[in-house]
Amino acid sequence: MSQESASQKNRNNAKKEKEQQDYGCVPSRFWYSFFGSVIAASVLKRVFGMKLKTDKKIRDLPGPLVIVGNHPSFIDPAIMGIALKGRPINFVAGEFLFRKKIFGHIITKGGCIPKAQFRNDLRTVRAMMRVLGRGGVLGIFPEGTRFTDGHSIGFENGLASIVKKTGAGVVIFRSHGAYMTWPRWSQSSWRRGRITAEFTDVLPSEKVQEMSVDEIHAFMRKALVYNEYAYFADHPQVFKSKAPASGIQNIANICPRCRKMNTTRIADGKGDTTLPKEARRKQNLIVCSACGNKVIMNQRGFFEPAGPEDKCFSDLHEWAEWERSVYEAEAGKEDFCLTEKVSLFKLCNEHDYAKVGEGVLTVKDGVITYEGSECPPEQGIVYKKGKPDSKYRDRDISKGAEPVTKTYQVSGMKGMLMDYGKFMELFDPREGAYRYVPENRQRLYEIQSIIMAMKDQRCDRK
Question: Is residue 21 very low, low, confident or very high in pLDDT (cuts 50, 70, 90)?
Answer without folding.
Answer: low
